[in-house]
Amino acid sequence: MVEKFDAIVIGAGPSGNAATYTLAKQGLKVLQLERGEYPGAKNVQGGIMYAHELEKIIPDFRDDCPTERHIIEQRVWLLGDDNYVGTNYRSEAFNSDKPNRYTIIRANIDKWWGEQIRKVGGLQICETTVTELIRDASGKVIGVRTDREGGEIHADVVIMADGVNALLAKRAGLQDEAAPENVALAVKEILFIDPELIQQRFGIKEDEGVVIEIMGKVTKGMVGTAFLYTNKESLTIGIGCLISDFKNGDCPPYRMLEELKKHPVIRPLIEGAEMKEYAAHMIPEGGYKAIPQLYGDGWMVVGDAAHFNNAAHREGSNLAMASGRMAAETVLELKAAGKGFTASNLAAYKKKLDDSFIMKDLKKYRELPGIMHGNKQFFGAYPDEITAAAHNWFTVDSVDKKTKEKAIMKAFVKRRSVMGLVGDAIKLVRAVR
Amino acid sequence: MSIVVKVEEKLYQNRYIVDESRPHIQIKSEEACKSCDRQACTFCCPAACYSKNETGGVTLVTDGCLECGTCRVVCQDKGNIAWDYPRGGYGISYKFG
């Protein structure tokens, strides 16, 4: 006899956890399948966690959720060869009793989620890889097959939260392989260090955190970004670029990361720290135009598997949690109304997404991925010229300021031409409006 | 700046549960690799699982695999990589992620 559940959720990342918890809390018989040794074993995140979406699902999460530091300062740095130009935003207001953003260590958070899911009666089973979707004669998804013996399990609805690789949807012909220009590869390391040193180097108190988002020469003209985040007793440092750019280049990602760590403005911040793990993960970067079919008879797809990532704002886990919650709420509403999980009924999930920040934001930035991919000057020529201009401007050498201004303008025009500069400005506006 | 990076030293810090003699990724055709001019898998893989070999082809050792999927995306035009997840519980097991 094949066991049957109200819903099966595949994957124990932010989207799958949000979906499973929401369903279990309302008393549904829900099974969550995870291929890792424990929840989080396969997951990688920078990582920043945004409180607002988690709060919607678990309002009092701050009571016991193992976050690292709440963020009080955001830095954005443009790196040159041995320099940077940057902006910082720091505010005491971020020291509220309900902070908005936290640095996290992914595996700790996913284990905590596992406990929350068990508390509300959800069943989470690890060490189980789902190998395929089971469909009936009409094509409706009615369950999953796993790599365990007798591993066939049925459900009224299957929510795919299996991450950026999304093998299940691809194998079932519900999704195409991601184009190399629509996914980035990011590598990162966690570096352990005395918390006192973190506090000194970043000018913060215990529990306060700083995040640095980085662009510039370190990505070697490839479309990409880097980051440095402060955890309680560790720093995470990472860098990622579009896979199409890695493919056309010849610099392995680990070398790029090593060069970032040795950069003269980064090195003093991480000096003396001990590396304890090296991770790699793909990130969906194609935006609105790369979103696949999101639902069908008996199935929905959420999180990274649905390509929900706002690259411009470096938001992913909140889109994941929100989409997982919306998929679960769709299930709950249809069930309450006595309706089946047909494609036409599950279209309600898409409607929820469209009405939310997820689709609104992705739509706003729909031109951004294509413009960045096609205009490498934003990652090569501009970091060069902007950092060189700053160096010129802040070097006091008895050259009069008007001459300095002219030299700076001339350098930009030489690099991009007047029409090129105007065109780039228009492109940037088009990319974000 | 070009520096030598030993990726093995990075991977050494990671926890793996290796599924002996059951690699989850396979190169479909050796010949297809030989006719691939750039062999981008050899410099895109973040764990350096792919290396150029003396026959002009590519050798794959999946032990250090981070299961990111990059090789599959890189090779999709050739379609020469059979990519699967390891069996449940096996493969990379991130302590921190």
Automatic annotation (TrEMBL), chain A:
Cofactor(s) needed by this chain: FAD
GO MF entries: FAD binding; oxidoreductase activity
PANTHER family according to UniProt: ELECTRON TRANSFER FLAVOPROTEIN-QUINONE OXIDOREDUCTASE YDIS-RELATED
Gene3D superfamilies found in the cross-reference section: FAD/NAD(P)-binding domain
The protein, known as: Protein FixC
Family: Belongs to the ETF-QO/FixC family.
Entry keywords, A to Z: FAD, Flavoprotein, Oxidoreductase
Function: Could be required for the formation of a functional nitrogenase Fe protein. Probably accepts electrons from FixA/FixB and reduces a quinone.
A Pfam family assignment: FAD_binding_3
Domain FAD-binding: start-end pairs: 5-323
Superkingdom classification of source: Bacteria
Entry-linked InterPro entries: FAD-bd (IPR002938), FAD/NAD-bd_sf (IPR036188), FixC-like (IPR039651), FixC-like_C (IPR059103)
Domain FixC-like C-terminal: 368-433
UniProtKB/TrEMBL annotation, chain B:
Gene3D superfamilies noted in UniProt: 3.30.70.20
Superkingdom classification of source: Bacteria
Residue ranges of domain 4Fe-4S ferredoxin-type in the record: 23-55, 56-86
Single GO MF annotation: iron ion binding
Keywords annotated in UniProt: Electron transport, Iron, Iron-sulfur, Metal-binding, Transport
Record carries keyword Transport: yes
Keyword Iron: yes
The protein's role, per its UniProt record: Could be a 3Fe-4S cluster-containing protein.
PANTHER family named among the record's database cross-references: FERREDOXIN-LIKE, FERREDOXIN-LIKE PROTEIN YDIT
Protein's name in the database: Ferredoxin-like protein
Species per Swiss-Prot/TrEMBL record: Azospirillum palustre
